[in-house]
Write a structure and sequence with these properties.
mainly alpha
C-alpha cells in the first residue's frame, strides 16, 4: 500500500519540481564575448559585472520570491518588498543593459538615418546635444543609479530620466539604459564618471534602441 502511495505521489512531486524550476530566474547569456567591448569596457569589468553582480541580483530575486511564496504573514511579505524591488530591478535593468551594448566593429556606436535619429534631433536638437545632456544628468546621480533615454507615451517624446539604486524605469518605456554603479566602470575609469560615459557611446547598440523605440511608438 505504501509503495502504491509513493508511486502515485511521484508524478505530482515531479510536476511541482518542474514547475518551480521553470519559474526560477536565470542569468541571461551575453550576446557577445566578454572582451568584445574593449577597449571601451574591459573584459575584466564585463566578466565581473555579468557573472558576479548580475548573478547576485538573480539569486537575490529567486530567494525573495521563494520566501514571499512560502510566507503566510502579511508583515513578512511587506518586509520582502525592498528585496523584491532591489533584486528584481537589478535583474530587469541588467538584462536590458547587455542588449544595449554591441562591439564597436558591429552595431556599437552606429546610429543610422532613421526614426530614432529623427526623434533625437526633434527632441534634443542634435544627437551630440542629446549625449551631452544625457551624460550630465547621469553623472549627477548621487551614489548609484541608472541613466535612461525613455519614451514618454503621454508626451510622445524622448526624455532623459534617472533612477536611483536598481529601480527600474516605470514612468517611461526604456530605450537606452546606462549603469552608473561603480562596479560598471571603476576598475577601468576609477572615479571619473565622465570618461566612462563618453566611452560607452562607442558601444551603445543603437539598432536595438531603435527597435525598442519603434515598438514603443506603434
Amino acid at each position: 500500500m505504501l509503495s502504491i502511495a509513493r508511486n502515485a505521489l511521484r508524478p505530482a512531486l515531479t510536476r511541482m519540481f518542474v514547475a518551480r524550476s521553470a519559474s526560477l530566474h536565470t542569468l541571461p547569456e551575453l550576446p557577445y564575448a566578454y572582451n568584445a567591448l574593449e577597449p571601451h569596457i574591459s573584459e575584466q569589468i564585463m566578466k565581473l559585472h555579468h557573472t558576479k553582480h548580475h548573478q547576485a541580483y538573480v539569486n537575490g530575486l529567486n530567494a525573495a520570491e521563494e520566501a514571499y511564496a512560502k510566507s503566510t504573514s502579511t508583515k513578512e511579505k511587506i518586509a520582502l518588498q525592498s528585496a523584491l524591488k532591489f533584486n528584481g530591478g537589478g535583474h530587469i535593468n541588467h538584462s536590458l543593459f547587455w542588449k544595449n551594448l554591441s562591439p564597436a566593429n558591429e552595431s556599437g556606436g552606429k546610429l543610422s538615418e532613421g526614426p530614432l535619429k529623427d526623434a533625437l534631433e526633434r527632441d534634443f536638437r542634435s544627437v551630440d546635444d542629446f549625449k551631452k545632456r544625457f551624460n550630465a544628468a547621469t553623472a549627477a546621480i548621487q551614489g548609484s543609479g541608472w541613466g535612461w533615454l525613455g519614451y514618454n507615451p503621454a508626451t510622445e517624446k524622448l526624455e532623459i530620466v534617472t533612477t536611483p539604486n536598481q529601480d527600474p524605469l516605470i514612468s517611461h518605456v526604456p530605450i537606452i539604459g546606462i549603469d552608473i554603479w561603480e562596479h560598471a566602470f571603476y576598475l577601468q575609469y576609477y572615479n571619473v564618471k565622465a570618461d566612462y560615459l563618453n566611452a560607452i557611446w562607442n558601444v551603445v547598440n543603437f539598432t536595438e534602441a531603435e527597435h525598442r523605440f519603434l515598438e514603443a511608438t506603434q
